[in-house]
Amino acid sequence: MIKAVIFDLDDTLYGYEALDREARGRVCELVCAKLGIAAADYEEAYAYGRRETKRQLGDVAASHNRLLYCQKTLEYLGVNPVPLSLRMYETYWGTFLEKMRLFEGVREFMDRMREQGIVMMICTDLTAHIQHRKIEALGIAKDIRYLVTSEEAGKEKPAPEMFALCLKKLGMQPEEVCYIGDSQVKDVEGAAAAGIRAVRFYPDMPGAEQYGKLAEMILAAGRS
Ligand SMILES: [Mg+2]
Fold first, then answer.
1. Whole-angstrom Cα distance, residue 119 to residue 177?
2. Is 20 a catalytic residue?
3. Share of the chain above pLDDT 70, in %
4. Nearest residue to 4 (alpha-carbon basis) of 163, 155, 132
5. What is the arrangement of strands in the sheet containing 119-124, beginning at the earlier edge strand?
6. Cα–Cα 20 to 30 A to 191, which of 87, 155, 185, 223?
7. Where are the strands (E) in the chain, listed by range?
8. Model pTM above 0.70
9. Could you please report the per-residue DSSP string of 121-170?
10. Is 182 a catalytic residue?
């Protein structure tokens, strides 16, 4: 019997790519206007900032911290990063969070789970601060009972620590839990290695159909 559902967040509950593209475009416009540089030069600096942050930090939550990308972008451009980094960061997240919408089918799925008393939680790479803001922006803060981030676990998916911490918070056995996520390696294989039944979500395919099928599977498991 399934007693809990664990969701990945990005590209599982909402679509990341289009929002990221739009938000990055807004930051590019801001910096180009402020510094009087061409978009291509900004993009080169941004690519450096992101790459350097990831190279220095490896697989930890801070490697996704956009404030670090912003600082390094400006450092690469040879300007003082202090006056502009935070504004870049807030432009990015302001744009992103304002436009976030749940995939079709998620709201209905969560309502069905709640009716059955099935607990819902999120297991996600990245820092707790931003993931809390996303959950709030999506309007699902009251649906989600627990959150595990890679910042908290100290490791990123598919590390077993992430899934072990989820089970610990739930106080459940792996076979009582179902996991849904878009990454074959991080989500599906990570959860499966912890003995958790995992279902892959395809963000480019209709969400309502996928969440509908998942609800049927979970409710059928409850009846058996
Ligand atoms: Mg994801």
1. 9
2. no
3. 99
4. 163
5. 146-149, 119-124, 4-7, 177-181, 197-200
6. 223
7. 4-7, 119-124, 146-149, 177-181, 197-200
8. yes
9. EEEESS-HHHHHHHHHHTT-TTT--EEEEHHHHSS-TTSHHHHHHHHHHH
10. no
Is 221's pLDDT higher than 90?
no
Q: Which residue's structure tokens are 């996928």?
A: 210
CATH number of 4-15+101-223: 3.40.50.1000
pLDDT value of position 146: 98
Q: Give which of 133, 186, 176, 148 is closest to 14, Cα–Cα.
A: 133
Cβ burial of 177 (10 Å; 0-12, 13-18, 19+) is buried
Q: How far is the CA of 83 from the centre of ligand 1 (A)?
A: 32
* Cα 12 from chain centre: 8
Expressed in angstroms and rounded, the spacing between residue 219 Cα and the centre of ligand 1 is 24
Q: Given the structure tokens 């670090």, which residue do they identify?
A: 68
- For ligand 1, the distance from its centroid to the CA atom of residue 76, given in whole angstroms, is 30
199 Cα: distance to centroid of ligand 1 (angstroms): 12
- Amino acid occupying residue 216: E
Task: List pLDDT tens digits, range 131-143.
Answer: 999 999 999 999 9
Catalytic residue among 8, 11, 125, 187: 8
Place of tokens 């220095």: 56
The alpha carbon of 8 and the centre of ligand 1 are apart by a number of angstroms equal to 6
